[in-house]
Amino acid sequence: MSKMNKDIAEVVEEQIAFEMIELATNDVESLARAFDMINDLCKELSEEIARKPVTPPNSEIN
């Protein structure tokens, strides 16, 4: 293989590697956003539960 073909092959491989890294980074960022949203929802639900008074059931234990 000529030097030119090797250089082109290296450039193409490098471009593919960078694209793969970019895609993986985008996936990680999407997962981080999803986890943040879930975390926020859990906090909101915990606060809502804490605001509601606990009422014992009407039935008695015999």
What key attributes describe this structure?
single chain, 62 residues, mainly alpha, 0% strand, rod-shaped
Describe the secondary-structure layout.
Elements: H1 3-51
Q: Provide the low-confidence segments as ranges.
A: none
Task: Indicate the overall shape.
Answer: rod-shaped
| Alpha-carbon Rg, integer | 28 Å
Q: Quick check: average pLDDT?
A: 88
| Main sheet record | none
- SSE order, one letter for each helix or strand: H
Helix content: over 70%
CA distance, first residue to last residue: 90 Å
The share of residues in extended strands comes to: under 5%
Question: What's the count of strands?
Answer: 0
Contiguous helical run count = 1
- Counting helices, strands and paired strands, the structural category is mainly alpha
